[in-house]
Amino acid sequence: MLNVNKISRPALSRPVRRSKVRYRTLLSLYALFAPTAILLIVFSYMPMYGIIIAFKDYSIFKGIMASDWVGLEHFKYFLKDDKFWSIFRNTLVINFYDLLFGFTAPIIFALLANELYQKMFKRVMQTISYLPHFLSWIVVSGIFYSILSPQTGLFNHFLGWFGIEPIYFMTEPTLFRGLLVFAEIWKNVGWGAILYFAVIAGIDTSLYEAAWIDGASRWRQIIHITIPHMVPMIMLLFLLRLAGIFDVGFERVFLMQNPLVYDVSDVISTYVYRIGLEQSQFSLTTAIGLTQSLLGFLLLVISNRLSKKITGLGLY
Amino acid sequence: MHRYVTPSRFLFQLFNYTFFVIFCISILVPFINAIAISLSSYNGVLSGKVGLWPIEFQLDSYAKITGNVTFLRSFANTVFLTVIDTVLSVAISLCGAYALSHKKFVGRSAAFTFILIPMFFSGGLIPTYLLVMGLGLGNTYSALIIPSLVSGFYIIVFKNVIDQLPKELLESAEMDGAGEWRLLFRIVLPLVLPMTMAFIIFSAVGYWNQWFNVLLYIKDKSMWTLQFQLREILTTAQLQNDQLNPIGQQIIHPENLKMAALMVTILPIIVVYPFVQKYFIHGQFVGAVKG
Q1: Mutation target among A26, A55, A74, A152 for the B interface, most CBs of B within 10 A
Q2: Is there a contact between B234 and A145 if contact means CB atoms under 8 Å apart?
Q3: What is the CATH number that goes with domain B69-217?
Q4: ipTM given for this complex
Q5: With 0-12 CB in 10 A as exposed, 13-18 as middle and 19+ as buried, what is A202?
Q6: Domains of chain A with CATH codes
Q7: pTM for the complete prediction?
Q8: A91 inside 8 A of chain B by CB
Q9: What is the end-to-end Cα distance of chain B in Å, rounded?
Q10: In 3D, which of A52, A88, A49 has the Cα closest to residue A269?
Q11: What are the residue ranges in chain A where pLDDT is below 50?
């Protein structure tokens, strides 16, 4: 995906007197790069070193270096913990729904929106569709709680017209995961579709013309021209998405959930926050976090291999 | 060209337009409803019948919020943080990207890998938290500002955009004796302005919506950001230090207050949104094609 341009070798015949200028240039280039380098070292690379507390019994008073080694104790502990497995299951289940519905939604959205010929309608619709992406999960969860409220909510009022009794949507364990997935789609489907719009806009229109002359219906044109052109982008996003399969975004779940639905909605990220930061179990939760990101990375590498073999497409 | 109408095609179009109309309604109606609730009276909200229009119009909820010192304070904090963070973050990324795309930057590919690695691996929540606290940044705005300044994604997209610029332009300016800094700000920056605008908007929205880091690092109520304040209002249905304010204790329904706070929080985004739309779509497109 990302190509590093090869460094071009400086021409051998360059006059000597220019070396001073070059030196000064290099110095200012390093000065320009310095903030990036320093910040990355401190706030990205130093936390990587901090991962070793997963193998130690971290104590705030002793610090990372002096804390005692415990090997794989923390890993053994959470692997035996029933609570962890229920969290792990929730994470996978919610992610599975996210993939099945949340990942495909922008693809279908882009294909359908591409069939809108009324330009003005399409533009207004797109503008509206991007809007929720720019609002925080706090706002989205506030809106959902408000509109689905059994007492004052508009949606239950609407259901009342059909004689349906108010439903306690946000506190109903059987509905909650569905709501989480729905909220994600509601917030991000339009935004996610932009990438696919970009791909569709780049397709050579003469292909459609040729297909039309050959008598292909619009439906067949979509199947045989539009979708095949979208496959590389779909594959790319799918592979990137797979790396996050053991991770459900913290804010969405934490801000939408409430104690009545903890059982079906607690995921690794909210669990790590609760026991890690609220109960200060730093080593244990670092071990969980490390396992989670290693599994995600492993899955990314394997699926990239598979994808390359089967479709010839890969991330790297 | 392909707009000949068959019955099935007509049915599809009918379905398609209906679908998107419903989709737009599903996004707009909750917001219109929230506005209506925020403007309705206590009894109006209680009746559960507020739809798209307020029942017994009042502005007390807004008066109450804009009269609350803690709330105003968090608004000002958020504006301050958003401006500082956005300017620094985009400037650092642009400088880094310019250096990285320069031919004379010795160690370029190593620097590139150095930026790429953190995009795929990270220390994770707890080690980052311990580091920030260990540096003594707990309960300071530095904890909100500094750790998130560098974005590998911005740097790489900026670098790709700068790489596309015509080489002759930069070379001729260099011949004229322009230094690297002048070259960057006088020639490169104006050329990558649309991308810069897009990143300014992305960053600003991100920092405006910042909440998690406040939850982690900030303890003082006087340092809360708007989103954090809103979350408190949404979960407790009351304002901080409210006993000082006599307005509308009896006539404001909790839902009323919540929705008013929510509208104030998203107002800046809604107001700016139509004007900046072309930039962020540009950003997303370029990011898609070159990222």
Answers
A1: A152
A2: yes
A3: 1.10.3720.10
A4: 0.89
A5: exposed
A6: 16-69 (no CATH), 74-310 (1.10.3720.10)
A7: 0.88
A8: no
A9: 34
A10: A88
A11: 1-13, 16
